[in-house]
Every structure is written in C-alpha cells, then in structure tokens.
Specification:
The chain is 29% helix and 20% strand. It is an alpha+beta fold and 591 residues long. The chain folds into 5 domains: 72 residues, no CATH class; 69 residues, no CATH class; 126 residues, Dna Topoisomerase Vi A Subunit, Chain: A, domain 2, CATH 3.40.1360.10; 109 residues, no CATH class; 150 residues, no CATH class.
C-alpha cells in the first residue's frame, strides 16, 4: 500500500507544502484533522495522531494491517521467476507477508511498539532456528507477546506450526537430566536458570501444553516437576503438562510444586524476586529442589478411548462403571466421587485428610483431572454438555468436570468436621500435622546481625530452628526478628520454642495458615506437638513440646558455641535483614 492509497481512505485529507497530509483520525470522533500521514525515507508510511490514538487503532479502523505500512521491498517475494504471488497480494502466503530474516520481521514491530523487553529463540530437535517470541511490558499490568515463525519461504509474524518445539530444548538435548522443571513462559525459564534450575516452557503460555512436541524429552529426564502459576489457568496448565508427560514412551514421572507465599497469579519470578535481596540465588534453587524432593508423584489420568467405546457412548451406553452411576447433575456426581474415592475423615484448612490414601489431599490434586471412570459417570449427568442433536459431547466432559469440581470441593469441606473435632484420628494424620509444623521451622531465612563490640553487619542463612538455638537465653522469651516464633533457655539448659499460627502465613505451609489460633492450639495439644502458653505482648502462643522438638528437629538441651554473638543478658542489638519467601524487610535490632 502506498501513502496515497491510504490517504484516499481518510476523510478531510489535505496535503501540505512539506508533502505531509493532515486528515481526520478514523480511530476517534475527529472533527478537526489531527492525523498526520507522511512518507519515511525508506518508503514506510508514518502515522501520528496528535489526539493520542495508537497506530494499531488507526490501521484497525481502516481495515488494514500494520505490515501494509511498509514498502514492498522490505519483504521477500515467493521465489517465482515471473514475480507472481501464488494468488496472494504483496508476495504473501495465507495472507502473511514473508521476510528474508527474522530481524526484518522485527522492524515493523519495533517501530510501533519500541524495543522489546524480551526476545527468545526457539530451535527444533535438529537444532534449526524455527521461531522467535517477543515481549513488550507496556505497563505494570499490561504486556504484549508476539511470536515469529520460520517457513520455507521466509519468516512470518505469527505462531509456529503445531506441534511447536519446547523453549530451551537445546539444553535438554545436551544430555541426560535428573530433573526438569516446567514453567509457563520464556521469562520464567530464564528466571529458573538464574537460580540453577533446568526448565522448559511451551510457546503460547498456559493454553499451549497440548500444542507442544514433548517427544524429545522422553528418555532424557528422570522426572518432571511443574512450577505452575498460582491461579486457575496455572492449574489447568499443570494438568495438561502431566497428561503429555505420562503419555510419552517411556512415561515420565511428574510432580507438582506449589511455591510458598505466592499471591494469586504469582509465579516463580515473584518468588525469586521476593528472596534475592539477601539470599544467594543458588540457595533459592536448592530450596525449590528440596520442595520437589518432598512432593508426591502425580498419578496418571487414564486416556479416553476412541473407536468402539465412543460409538457405544453415542448410543447412550457408556462402557465401564458409568452404567451404574447415580442419576443427577454433574455437581452431584463429582461430590459423590470425592466422598467415595477419598473417604475423607476431616478438613484441615482447605484440604482434607483421606482415610483411603492415609494422607492429606489438597484441592489442586482433587481437581487435577477426571479419571475415565468419572468421565463415564459424568456422561450420564442430566446437565452434561450436548450437541445440537442432544448427544452428549464426550470430549467436553473434562472441562465440564473442571467447571463443577471447585463447587463440589467447597461443599465437601463444609460437611466435614474440623480436625480437632474429628473422632478417631489415624496415625498418619498425627504424623502429617507434626511434619507440617516441623517443615515450617526448617525454612531457611537470612538475618543480619552484629557481634558484640563490632560495627560490621553479618548476614547468615539458617533455618528458623537454628536461629532459635542461637537466640535462646535464660529469662524472657526472645523473638526471632519479625517472625512469629520465640525462644528461650530454661534453667536446666533446655531450649524452649513457641510460635503462633500466623507464622505459617510468613513461611508456609498454607494449609496451616488458614487455621484459627484457637483451633491450632487445640490440634497441637491433641497431637502432642505443644501446649497453649501464656501471652507475649498480648499474643497467645503455643509452646512446642520437648519431645516434639527432639524427635522432629533434633533439638535437645545444648546451645551452639557460636551463640556468643547474642545474649550477654541484655536486649539484642543489630541491623537486621531477613527474607523467607516474602518481600525482604529491614529492621534495626541490636545484639
């Protein structure tokens, strides 16, 4: 398109002596011409609306594409000797213009969006450069993602053909890896690499796992660990990734790790940003590895069968146990499935304790995906999704499950007793609760302090329980900085540790953070983890039992020799810096 052709589509256009045009902008109600149209030195059409309309809004109002603003010489022809274009205008195929190099395709995008904040390159399993993904951070809450794809006739602005290669595939092909992390997006792969973790991502974000070629990973990694975003699309992405990994030959074991302390929509970038103010980056990666070590394996979800089973289902006779399913809505069937499959004993925050599996079941695990047995039951639901002919759409049932699972889970929690109100408690439940408390005290945090008589501030990384050992002194309870945990040394030398339930909101786990202080104190007494103690600064604490400290944390009667950095009998004094998965805080404290 020439500048003259574009101006012919505008109203009130007049050309000035400088060769530029002024016209009414089609992107807003323009009564006085405010759109400037000019020719660039390289033949590019330059647009400027003095009312503030974007170039994208202007060309969209005119019904043309951004690429039409660039001269024909910027694009590579289709290679025909006669110069014809295979029926497509401007030497394009499928309506997309071709560029000889990806840098040429980048020019129009950079002109209208500025320099991208991120450029990531994709290579296939033959190490051929096949794609580029660009990112612009337009504001704090707005971003723009634009992929480029290689074709035999040149580069185009658009997605790579499916299935697309994994981002960071080159690193996977270098050799065998013990563990591979999967995240959502190229920026998060870079973040994982910064803390020493090998990670990959799908091109296209949370909805692209099924559009990705995972086959090069088969046989090259021992396990996959998913670090999904903390939101519903992240949970769906995790389910899709697990399905792909379990379907490989050979199948790859999969784990799901929920990073502690993330806000809604948070991700690994938020987690690392909250810690790297004082933490060594490699140690952050090691901490995530420890979470992955403790995470349970996800169970493979049976694949839907094709062929005869689908034909039978279309005639109203699903195979398997579906013929014995209760009549009712999808919600009724899912709720009954949760009851019968998990056989829950009580609720613990937003989780349940399953007597069938002898462990805690989180909502993310329960809503991870529907088994084939449950799909068959949902086929008989009175409100199952149907086509125009009234036949149940079996392929839509997994999404149907996802739409009702959360409501069913919430109502399941409502009908269960609280943990402290439950009758007979299994040994597994006792061990599980004690393990959650112990894990919180094993959280690594960084704290700065000064030795007595020194001016230099030292920053050390220790677990909370180690800091308790260092801070313990005879007499009054001493608080470990801003963490809701206290420590002191009894007359016989025994270390005493107390805490409040709000500590779990600071360091995790989130399962305990939702429990009220009164309920937490009752559970600690019931499971012999601790006893409700006196108030400290108006706050009721739970003093942990010596037997629990010794059995779970190895805390006995001795105090480390290097405890002389504190506790000369006076109030500690130092300049403190600390970090534990939240935004770093600074305090002035003295030791």
């Amino acid at each position: 398109m020439t500048a003259e052709e574009l101006v012919s589509r505008l109203q009130g256009a007049k050309q000035g002596t400088d060769g530029k045009w002024m016209a009414r902008c089609p992107a807003h109600d323009d009564r006085t011409p405010s759109l400037s149209v000019a020719k660039g030195a390289d033949g590019m059409i330059l647009l400027k609306c003095f009312a503030g309309c974007t170039v994208e809004a202007i060309v969209q109002s005119l019904g043309v594409g951004l690429c039409e603003l660039f001269p024909e010489s910027a694009f590579e022809k289709n290679g025909r000797a006669d110069g014809r274009t295979n029926g497509h205008a401007n030497g394009s195929a499928n309506g997309k213009k071709r560029y000889p190099r990806f840098q040429d395709a980048l020019k129009p995008l950079k002109y209208y969006n500025g320099e991208p904040s991120g450029i990531w390159h994709y290579f296939d399993d033959a190490d051929k450069h096949v794609g580029v993904v660009l990112r612009w951070d337009l504001s704090e809450d707005e971003k723009k993602i634009q992929p480029l794809a290689w074709t035999p006739n040149g580069w185009v602005i658009g997605h790579m053909p499916k299935p697309r290669p994994l981002f960071n595939l080159r690193e996977i092909l270098k050799g065998h890896a013990k563990r591979l992390y999967v995240v959502e997006g190229e920026k998060k792969v870079d973040c994982a690499a910064k803390i020493g973790l090998l990670a990959v991502a799908s091109c296209g974000g949370a909805n692209a796992a099924r559009q990705t070629d995972w086959s090069p990973v088969a046989g090259r990694v021992d396990e996959i660990v998913i670090l999904s975003d903390h939101d519903e699309p992240g949970a769906k992405y995790a389910a899709d990734v697990a399905e792909q990994a379990h379907g490989l030959t050979p199948p790859i074991p999969v784990k799901l790790v929920e990073l502690p302390g993330l806000p809604e929509g948070g991700d690994i970038v938020d987690y690392v940003d909250a810690q790297d103010a004082v933490e060594d980056l490699a140690d952050i990666g090691k901490g995530i590895d420890r979470l992955a070590d403790a995470a349970p394996l996800l169970q493979p979800q049976p694949k839907r069968r094709k062929g005869p089973q689908r034909v039978a289902a279309q005639h109203g006779q699903p195979n398997g146990d579906a013929t014995r399913a209760k009549d009712g809505t999808g919600y009724d069937i899912i709720l009954e499935h949760f009851r019968s499959d998990y056989q829950p004993a009580f609720r613990r925050g937003q989780s349940i304790f399953s007597t069938r599996y002898g462990r805690e079941i989180k909502s993310t695990e329960a809503m991870f995906g529907a088994s084939e047995e449950l799909i068959n039951k949902l086929y008989l639901a009175t409100d199952a999704p149907r086509n125009d002919e009234g036949v149940v759409r079996r392929g839509a049932l997994p999404r149907f499950f996802a739409s009702w699972a959360r409501s069913a889970w919430v109502d399941l929690l409502a009908e269960l007793p609280e943990e402290e109100d439950a009758g007979e408690i299994a040994d597994d439940a006792v061990a599980g609760f004690a393990g959650l408390v112990a894990n919180a005290l094993c959280t690594i945090v960084s704290i700065g302090y000064q030795h007595a008589g020194e001016e230099e501030t030292r920053v050390e990384r220790r677990s909370l329980i180690d800091w308790c050992l260092l801070w313990a002194k005879p007499g009054e309870w001493a608080k470990v900085r801003s963490y809701l945990v206290w420590t002191r040394r009894a007359e016989n030398g025994q270390i005493q540790v107390a805490l409040r339930v709000e500590l779990f909101g600071q360091v995790g786990p989130r399962e305990l953070a939702t429990i009220s202080p009164t309920k937490f104190a009752r559970l600690c007494r019931q499971y012999e983890v601790g006893e409700p103690g006196s108030k400290i600064n108006g706050q009721r604490i739970v003093e942990l039992a010596p037997a629990f400290l010794a059995a779970r944390l190895g805390v006995h009667l001795t105090v480390p020799d290097d405890a002389n950095c504190h506790f000369d009998g006076s109030t500690p004094r130092a300049h403190g810096i600390e970090q534990s998965g939240k935004v770093a805080t600074e305090e002035k404290v003295h030791a």
